[in-house]
Write a structure and sequence with these properties.
By secondary structure, this protein is mostly helical. Helix content is about 55%, strand content about 5%. The protein has two domains: about 90 residues, Homeodomain-like (Arc Repressor Mutant, subunit A, Orthogonal Bundle), CATH 1.10.10.60; about 190 residues, no CATH class. The protein contains 14 helices and four strands. A hairpin with a 2-residue loop joins strand 3 and strand 4. It binds a DNA duplex (21 and 21 nucleotides) through helix 2, helix 6 and helix 9.
DNA sequence: AATAGTCTCAACCGCAGTATC
DNA sequence: GGATACTGCGGTTGAGACTAT
């Protein structure tokens, strides 16, 4: 396929970073395509004639295709994807072009691992909205719904499987709040230069708790009490802005002052804090399941992140 | 080194909502 | 108002990379 080179003045950064495109294949020669999916493709692209359908490409995009799409959108703008697909010379559906642009080629799309901030935000927002990936993605600039969805499936659901808990269950949500969110706060704290002078009580508590949780199964409540009393007796003014108190069968994080902490200086987090959601404000009423080794599992799962 | 199992993530699919004719 | 086209969303798939045996 001969494709005009992109404008000399236009060098898209993603082209420099993109993976070596996998071998591309044309629809009629693709052994991986089932008859059903070919039919589906034909049905989907109902506006195309038979010959066009036979030439429609699927599968990974090549560098040339990427360049062509970028070049076309640079000149004509995005949107009207079906006509774009036809006019650009790409043998792709409009849907495919749109997806490639929005998820990968668009200049403001971030690539690379999610930051602790972003991971925290995803956990928070998913607790609030569930699998509303696009809505969640709106609060993470540069991240796509697809990326967030993949993150959830590969990282979060993996943890759920590991724990043998349904990731949609209340128990799992509680586990997230109980263990992950504090850990994420800790990570955010470490990763945020602006908050480097802060010492989170949660962090202190966790440093104290973690080995105990790992080494002494079944003593969770006592540990909690111990930690709680430390926290309370010290009368700490939580520099992190939230209070953590641990009671015999409950674990309570007060986010009343949450807006003072580093992480919540981000607009998205401020929105969360100001919302009616009290995501960090939870009571653990069923503590025994944690003491049955769940905590161990959680605390040992940093390696998975 | 070979093989099997697992993980990641780009891409696809079906569907629903909206726009246009 | 109905038909058709377009767009966007969430769920799913599968190729390639990675890891364990």
């Amino acid at each position: 396929m001969h494709i005009k080179p992109p404008l000399s003045s236009f060098i898209h950064p993603i082209i420099l970073n993109t993976k070596e495109p996998s071998k591309a294949y044309f629809l009629p020669f693709c052994p991986l395509l089932s008859l059903a999916s070919m039919r589906a493709t034909k049905k989907m692209a109902s506006s195309c004639n038979e010959q066009e359908l036979d030439e429609l490409r699927r599968g990974p995009w090549t560098l040339d295709e990427d360049n062509l799409l970028i070049h076309y959108i640079t000149c004509h703008g995005e949107g009207r994807w079906n006509s774009l697909a036809k006019s650009s010379g790409l043998k792709r559906t409009g849907k495919s072009c749109r997806l490639r642009w929005l998820n990968y080629l668009k200049p403001d799309v971030k690539h690379g691992n999610l930051t602790p901030h972003e991971q925290l935000l995803i956990l928070e927002l998913h607790s609030k909205w569930g699998n509303r990936w696009s809505k969640i993605a709106q609060h993470l600039p540069g991240r796509t719904d697809n990326e967030i969805k993949n993150y959830w499936r590969t990282k979060v659901q993996k943890q759920a499987r590991h724990l043998k808990i349904d990731s949609n269950s209340k128990r799992f949500v509680e586990a997230l709040r109980q263990f992950w969110l504090p850990r994420m706060f800790e990570k955010v704290d470490h990763s945020s230069p602006s908050s480097s002078t802060c010492t989170s009580t949660m962090e202190v508590d966790q440093k104290n708790q973690s080995p105990q949780l790992q080494d002494h199964k079944g003593n969770m409540v006592d540990n909690m009490n111990s930690s709680s009393s430390n926290s309370e007796s010290s009368g700490l003014n939580l520099p992190y802005g939230y209070e953590s108190s641990l009671h015999s069968h409950s674990y309570y994080v007060d986010c009343n002052n949450f807006d003072k902490i580093g992480v919540s200086q981000q607009p998205e987090m401020q929105e969360l804090v100001s919302s009616d959601m009290s995501i960090l404000d939870f009571q653990l009423t069923d503590a025994e399941w944690i003491s049955n080794g769940l905590a161990d599992t959680f605390w040992n799962m940093d390696q998975l992140w």
